[in-house]
Amino acid sequence: MGNGIRVVLVSPDKDHYLFTGKLYFDFTNNMAEYEACIIGIRATIECKIKVLEVYEDSALVIYQLKGELEMRDPKLINYRRLVLELIKEFDDIIFCYLPQDKNQMTNTLATLAFMEEEKDDHPWYHDISHYVKNCEYSEQATENNKRTLRRLANDFHVMTSPWPFSMWGMDAIGPISPKTSNGHRFIFVVIDYFTKWVEGASYANVTKSTVNKFLKKKLICRYGMPERITSKNALNLNSSTIAEVCSQFKIKHHNSSPYGPKMNGAMEAANKNIKKIVGKMTETYKDWHEKLPLA
């Protein structure tokens, strides 16, 4: 199976050349960053390029290559030695740290380049199906591959809301500093995934009992019985109390998945908007709880 690494070369004329590869061994994130860096440098050497700017979103790799950071991981020593040997082929080369949030375009292009159909006479779900049926991994599977297979073999849940107020997401914002005049420092938020309608309330702490009361008073009593509630993997949002409430009213409760960007994005957007609106309406830092119902 292997895990992919991606590199994009950008010419002075803004032409983009995409390179991808796979690693068929267990590796750390920093090892993968070095592998990608080496692929890019070797590609430029083959193209007989003599002047190169290397942009990496791993600060550790960049500062190690520049000699500004001590090498503590013995697994990275040979990587650094190889890169320093390769850069002798250039007349001029510089290494620059580029934060990941400023590297989105390159990441997107590289990901698209990597999304190529692999011809192996099996459908894409072959390894997942084989694991589900036989609990066996493929011979080439790394530890990362095995974890991915176990995750993909879990139960699948519906990630779209079929009608208004049937599926809600819940999350907690905070702790917020400074806390309000009444001691509140958290905002508990739920969003209907169909209408994008948001309900929220402030609390001193988001405990099992406050979540329980919120669900009954603000959600069930106002909008009827939802079919499903999703929550993040926080203890207070996955407590036995919530399980009891959901069981009592026959509501399905699931944890949100990092691989459901549409649902997670709706929740994150709601949280962001609440913070922005409350921030603009607040006259003093300690009265934001009074403005929350108007947000």
UniProtKB/TrEMBL annotation:
It comes from the Eukaryota. SUPFAM superfamilies: Ribonuclease H-like. One of its GO terms (biological process) is DNA integration. PROSITE patterns: INTEGRASE. It holds the Pfam family rve. Residues 158-295 form the Integrase catalytic domain. InterPro entries: Integrase_cat-core (IPR001584), RNaseH-like_sf (IPR012337), RNaseH_domain (IPR002156), RNaseH_sf (IPR036397). Signal peptide: none annotated. GO terms for molecular function: nucleic acid binding; RNA-DNA hybrid ribonuclease activity. PANTHER family: RIBONUCLEASE H (PTHR48475), RNASE H TYPE-1 DOMAIN-CONTAINING PROTEIN (PTHR48475:SF1). This is Protein NYNRIN-like. The lineage of its organism: Eukaryota, Viridiplantae, Streptophyta, Embryophyta, Tracheophyta.
